[in-house]
Hints:
binds adenosine-5'-triphosphate; binds 7,8-diamino-nonanoic acid
Amino acid sequence: MHDLFVSAIGTDSGKTLVSSILLTAFEGEYWKPIQAGKPTDTDSVRNLVGEEKHVFHPERYVLQKPASPHDAAAEEGIEIRLEDFSLPAHTRPLIVEGAGGLMVPINESQVILDLIHHLGLPVVLVANLYLGSINHTLLSADALKRKGVPVKGIIFNGEPNEASQRFIQNYTQWPVLLHVRREESVTADSINKYAHQFLKTYHEYYP
Length: 207
Ligand SMILES: Nc1ncnc2c1ncn2[C@@H]1O[C@H](COP(=O)(O)OP(=O)(O)OP(=O)(O)O)[C@@H](O)[C@H]1O
Ligand SMILES: C[C@H](N)[C@H](N)CCCCCC(=O)O
Ligand SMILES: [Mg+2]
């Protein structure tokens, strides 16, 4: 099964948009284990891809403060623990979206990367190509490698930068599964278009 954890090189990188694309591509099921702040990503994905064709699993934690989960949880007197999380039962590919990047704390000692390892899912990493993103992307790559988490590939989101992309590809040797361009507005049509492109490339790498 093509279950995937969608992480990124930072927050606001485009994980929710990419999750909507992957959900559409696989006709899958969506789960955001930790939500910090409203509106929820689950609602955003639901609005983008429609309610009918997909399953939306309830978050394990919905925290009010739009902040790092360790901070948002502490504000409510909650301590998030890895043991709180297990994959929801699913029959179609499960797309799991993280919060922020890989090293975002979920409590005083553990980070999203520990959650990914705990759930045992391979990662698709969303990366932007702004100035500074090479560093953020390669640090993310090294963190994943150190933890032994498998990576299915990278998805670039936003403005292109050929020189940056080339270095990232050479360093990581990861498949580039998609490049989402900056869209004037994100519509069902654009999501369908990218889902189609993604699936074609994905099946070339993973027949
Ligand atoms: N390619 C794009 N074209 C247009 N808008 C985009 C694009 N990528 C992201 N956005 C917009 O940028 C904002 C942040 O993107 P998104 O919510 O997907 O980030 P995220 O990585 O899921 O953040 P979080 O860590 O909070 O989950 C959203 O308003 C989204 O619609
Ligand atoms: C609230 C925000 N949209 C995300 N859900 C959480 C981002 C945490 C980032 C923490 C950090 O890297 O400093
Ligand atoms: Mg998101």
